[in-house]
Amino acid sequence: MDWTAYVDGYCERLAPGFWAEPLNAVSNLSFLVATVATWRLAGRSAHPRITRTLSVLLGLIFLASSAFHTLATRWAGAADTGFILVFVLFYAAAFTRLFLDVRWRYAWLAAPAFLAVTVAFGLLGIGGTYLPALIGLFVFAGLLAASRRPEIRRWWPRFAVTGGVFGASLALRTADHSVCGSFPPGTHFLWHLLNGLVLYLVSAAAALAPPPPRTSG
C-alpha cells in the first residue's frame, strides 16, 4: 500500500493541495482548544496524570486531523483515525477506574474489551467505527445513574448530554457526502466542532471526578 497516496474523501476537497479544505482544516482548532482547556484542569484535578494524558492524546488528535485535512494522504488519515481510537481506548480504562472504582490492573481490560466490540461492529458492517463510542457514552451514563455513590451518580447527565451531542456530530459526519450538491463545503467541519466539544466534556469529567474511595492498585 502506498501510504503517501492522495485521499479525496470530503465534499470540500475538489483537488490536491494543502489549503483545499479550509473549513475542515481550520475547524480542527476545536481539538486544540480542548487540549489546552483539559491541560489547565490538571492543576485542580485529583487525577493530574490521567488529565494530562488525555490532554496529550487530544493534542495528537489535533495534529493528525490537521495533517489529514491539509496533506490528504493515507498515512495522515490512518494517524487521524488511530489517535482517536487510542483516546477512546484509554478513556474506557480511565472511566472504569475513576467512576466504577475498579483497580487499574483490571480497569485496563476495558480497553481490549471495547476494541473487540469495535472490531465486531466493523466485521458486521454495523454503523462504522464510531457507533460503539456513541453507544458507550450512553452505557457510561446508565452505569453512573445506577451508582450508589451520590458524588458519582451526579455525573450521569453529563454523559447522557454528551452522547446526544456526539450523536448529532456523527450524523453531520455521515451527511457530508449527501449534501455536496446543495452545500459544497459539506458538513465535516461541523463534526470537528462538535467532536472537539465532546472530547472536552468527557475529559473534563475525568479530570473533575472525585477520588475513588480505594486508591491502591
From TrEMBL:
Q: Which UniProt keywords apply?
A: Membrane, Transmembrane, Transmembrane helix
For this protein, the parts annotated as crossing the membrane are 54-76, 82-100, 107-124, 130-147, 159-177, 189-209
Protein name per UniProt: Ceramidase
